[in-house]
Amino acid sequence: MKNEFKGLIVQGDKKFSIKNAKTDYTGGYNKEKAKDALVNAKIEINHLQEKLYAANSHSVLIIFQAMDAAGKDSAIEHVMSGLNPQGCQVFSFKVPTSEEYEHDFLWRHYKALPERGRIGIHNRSHYENVLVCKVHPEYILSENIPGYSHVKKIDKQFWKQRYDSIRNFEEHLSSNGTVILKFFLNVSKEEQKLRFLERIDDPTKNWKFSSGDIKERALWDDYMKAYEDAINETSTEKNPWHIIPADKKWFARLAISEIIADKLKGLNLKFPVLVEEEAAKLQLSKESLMSE
């Protein structure tokens, strides 16, 4: 699956067409086979996370973006189950607060970045500022940016500057040791409908549904265009986007876990080796314990 799945990475100048991206791809896996592979991937991630924490040289930022009901929460839950909670953190970004609106759009996301040795997961992210805000440009007015007092002034140049800011932000993070993994969970409109109906019919899932979800669904084509633009404008060699077929949740979880494991392996992380003086002290400590 790993080799085949590389074709779903949007990197550098390679252009992404959302219409040509499969949402039901499963890489030849079935649910049971994927379940076993997921267990192995999570064991590997857990081991690699321990090295990441001990080495304290890199941090990892995992970004999840998707339409409603694409499976972000369940994917995060399954990825998290393979991690040590002491070495990771999850942030779910909602509508900005009044304090956050008093700063630039990246401020609240910068505050939520993982420390060295830790894994940070962002459920929605700074990309909301070129996704939901592009579909609803009136939201930009709340940022009170000089020169943009009316929706009509939010033009192509505005969005170009915002994409530039995101690319530069991510380049800065990468240059300073943060590994960025960006996942777009690509669910079909038909599958979203089925999951919405399930939320409505199942009393234990009613809380997941909002009437506003239907209003946003009516803007599906606008959102697909916004996602396509954002992915193409912010995919770089160093910080590509991973397009995850999300109609089958079990496959999406496996794909995400294996990509994370591969990325961590690629860092060639090592447990710290004690200098000679500290190693000698360690031996003395052992001798002291043994003599008790």
Automatic annotation (TrEMBL):
What molecular function terms (GO) are annotated for this protein? kinase activity
> Which region is the signal sequence?
none
Sorted keywords for this record are: Kinase, Transferase
InterPro entries attached to this UniProt entry: P-loop_NTPase, Polyphosphate_phosphotransfera, PPK2-rel_1, PPK2-related
Look up keyword Nucleus and say if it applies: no
Q: Does the entry feature the keyword tRNA-binding, yes or no?
A: no
All residue ranges annotated as the Polyphosphate kinase-2-related domain in the record: 30-267
Q: Which family does it belong to?
A: Belongs to the polyphosphate kinase 2 (PPK2) family. Class I subfamily.
What protein name does the entry list?
Polyphosphate kinase 2 family protein
